[in-house]
Design a protein that fits this description.
CATH topology of chain A: ABC transporter involved in vitamin B12 uptake, BtuC
CATH class of chain A: Mainly Alpha
Distance between the termini of chain A: 63 Å
Strand content of chain A: under 5%
Strand content of chain B: 5-15%
Radius of gyration of chain A: 20 Å
Shape of chain A: globular
Strand order of the largest sheet of chain A: 1-2
Structural class of chain A: mainly alpha
Order of helices and strands of chain A: HHHHEHEHHHHHHH
Largest sheet of chain B: 2 strands, antiparallel
Helix content of chain B: over 70%
Number of strands of chain B: 2
Strand order of the largest sheet of chain B: 1-2
Shape of chain B: globular
CATH architecture of chain A: Orthogonal Bundle
Oligomer: heterodimer
Chain lengths: 309, 360
């Protein structure tokens, strides 16, 4: 039946396209919870995509590609951490600089890698048993890579760490009230560095997923603004990993459904839709005006200096 | 024996323009050194690369003209961005506002019947409002709903680019353009005059310089300029002083978007004389202008200098792209590095750092 294949394709797109969004959103949630806004996700993702492709191509192993992407994303995020935490530079501008640098560097380095096919991509798996459930089986448990399920398992784990452990309390307190956290013996800078690094790692893997699994190839600028959508999703998620998952998958599903408008809309305008969605997503959760900060961590974008407000 | 034992760091209480200039200059030099390391790693002699950039962008009449050509949109967008940044509204959307200005101007050029002498002025007016209205969307979203300005302005860049793509492939596609995706050529009355033998459409250049001066006077010498500064530096104080934050944001975005729109008119009517693919119409001017404005330390008058600097980098980047076979993305690496060193250097503007010498 037609509606069945329609449901299946929507759900499987939701997982395959939502996963990189989710990975990077989880990372950004951690960074922002600690009080550091990192607008360089696009740059870290594209560097992840590039480095994952090259190392997967050379080693013939996509998992090594993903590991390298995590390392590169992490290294890249530390530039932002140094600028914004140690030098107390403006976080908006530093993030933009990171994006420019990532897009530029990956474009320069990746010039000779464009258009090559990846010999071994991330394997698609079928979850035994569950895949036999009618409709739901082929929708959710077939034709996805293992990374998709790892990412989903990461959601409760990261939620638990953030809200139920001492480390999580440290992270949130540093993002809400660094002076008090400091007086209680939390090392503000270390926690912030750590969270930005986690964000970088996850953004790197998200980019890597694009180039070794989602569309296994390297194309210049292949992240195409996904990193910015992640920034919007982080706000939409109210800085909570669980809502982050809902947001990422909802966004992916909506994007897929918009393809159904094809008979009535020109392809160019259709391609503009995800970017409009990102704004609509924020309109949807907006509460009041400037004065209300939508539950953002109170110390977001504010550098911390001991003995100053 | 004397040796450095500790760095003495103290907060600066006042900031002389010379310190600002010195620190900014040092930041650019440091960024160039870092870029040099990158060139070296890429197997290109850094000295030769820099020499080519300078001679390519400034050493010949053609090079100079190319530099000025790139300076014009950077100047207009950059001036607008300094105004928005002063109110701490993060307008990352100059690129989209520029495209909207170009579309509005192209619409007037191709489809609106009017006396021919009025056509160019009408295009500039339409371009200004095209950019301004596009910029008003994120401003309203921020004022009314508290929506993050970075995201909304950035997303609208993509939307503007796709709308333009749609126009040139669909309803506005020129019957004479054959299979290509662009509009018809503008009629002669809709084409900006150039300095003969160069691509410099001087009316837009004049407009840019005038805009810089007027914006400077506006933000430093008027009551509204004062209000913009208060909103940017201390929103709470603005609130208690009875300054409407919303009004200020709408006002700066109208100007910021409008000026970017004018840059779009210049590109469409001065350079290409038609509407074509967005990535060809604007070579990322709206994004580069962010660095231009930041380097100018949000001073509209200083944009006259910083936009020329980035005009040199863009034009010189084109030269090394061709003669050394380097990819165009190199300019982004350059820009990213400059931006990092720039904000990193601000620590020296906030703090005085001195090496304390102590006898052992």
């Amino acid at each position: 039946m037609e509606w069945q294949s329609w449901v299946v394709s929507t759900f499987s797109f939701m997982l395959s396209y939502g996963t990189p969004l989710l990975l990077a959103t989880l990372g950004e949630i951690y960074a922002e919870r600690s009080g550091v806004l990192n607008l360089g996700i696009e740059g870290m993702m594209i560097m992840g995509a590039y480095s994952a492709f090259v190392s997967a191509y050379v080693t013939q192993n996509p998992w090594i590609g993903l590991a390298v992407a995590a390392g590169v994303g992490c290294a890249f995020s530390l530039i932002h951490a140094f600028a914004s935490i140690t030098l107390k530079a403006n976080q908006v501008v530093s993030g933009l600089a990171l994006t420019l640098l990532g897009l530029g560097l990956s474009g320069v380095l990746g010039r000779t890698w464009g258009g090559l096919p990846l010999p071994r991509t991330l394997q698609k798996i079928t979850v035994p048993g569950l895949s036999r459930i009618p409709i739901l089986g082929p929708s959710l448990f077939e034709g996805q890579t293992l990374l998709v399920y790892i990412t989903i398992l990461l959601v409760p784990l990261l939620w638990f760490i953030l809200f139920k452990t001492r480390i999580g309390i440290s992270i949130r307190s540093v993002g809400e009230d660094p002076a008090t956290a400091d007086s209680l013996g939390v090392n503000v800078k270390r926690v912030r560095y750590l969270c930005v690094a986690i964000g970088g790692m996850l953004a790197g893997v998200a980019g890597g997923y694009l180039s070794v699994a989602y569309r296994p190839a390297w194309t210049e600028g292949m992240t195409a603004g996904m990193g910015w959508i992640v920034v919007a999703l982080t706000i939409f998620a109210f800085w909570n990993p669980i809502t982050g998952m809902l947001g990422s998958f909802l966004f992916a599903a909506l994007y897929h459904l918009s393809f159904r408008l094809q008979p009535w809309m020109s392809p160019e305008l259709l391609r503009a839709l995800p970017y409009l969605f990102a704004i609509l997503v924020l309109v949807f959760v907006s509460r009041g005006t400037l004065q209300r900060r939508m539950g953002a961590p109170a110390a977001l974008t504010i550098p911390y200096t001991r003995g100053e407000d | 024996m004397r040796q450095p034992t500790w760095l003495q760091v103290e907060k600066r209480t006042s900031l002389s323009p010379w310190v600002v200039f010195g620190v900014s200059f040092a930041a650019i030099v440091a960024a160039l050194l870092a870029a040099g390391i990158f060139f070296k790693a890429y197997g290109v002699s850094p000295l030769r690369a820099f020499q080519l950039i300078i001679t390519g962008a400034l050493g010949s009449k053609v090079g100079l003209a190319e530099t000025v050509r790139r300076t014009i949109p950077l100047l207009l967008c950059g001036v607008g961005l300094t105004v928005a940044f002063r109110a701490l509204f993060w307008n990352i959307g100059a690129e989209g506002q520029l495209l909207m200005g170009a579309m509005a101007a192209a619409g007037v050029a191709l489809f609106v019947p009017m006396p021919e002498v009025l056509r160019l002025p009408a295009m500039f007016v339409a371009g200004f409002f095209g950019g301004a209205l596009w910029a008003l969307i994120p401003a309203l979203l921020k004022v009314k709903l508290g929506i993050n300005d970075v995201i909304s302005t950035l997303m609208l860049n993509y939307v503007a680019a796709f709308v333009m793509q749609y126009l040139i492939q669909g309803p506005w596609k020129g019957p004479t353009a054959r299979g290509f995706a662009y509009t018809d050529r503008f009629p002669a009355s809709a084409v900006l005059p150039r300095i003969p033998g160069t691509p410099i459409h001087w009316p837009t250049l004049v407009l840019g310089v005038v805009a810089a001066v007027l914006a400077y006077v506006w933000v430093t010498r008027t009551r509204q300029g004062f209000e913009i500064r208060v909103v940017g530096e201390n929103p709470d104080a603005a609130h208690y002083a009875g300054i409407s934050q919303g009004k200020v944001i709408l006002m700066v975005m109208l100007v910021s978007g409008g000026l970017a729109g004018l840059a779009g008119v210049g590109e469409a009517a001065g350079i290409h004389r038609m509407l074509l693919a967005p990535a060809k119409l604007s070579l990322g001017y709206g994004y580069t202008a962010i660095i231009v404005a930041w380097l100018a330390r949000r001073n509209p008058l200083a944009v006259i200098v910083t936009s020329v600097l980035f005009g040199v980098i863009m034009a010189g980047g084109d030269v090394i792209k061709v003669s050394l076979g380097l990819p165009f993305q190199l300019v982004n690496v350059f820009n990213g590095l400059i931006l990092f060193f720039l904000i990193g250097s601000e620590v020296f503007m906030r703090y005085k750092v001195a090496i304390a010498w102590r006898r052992r």
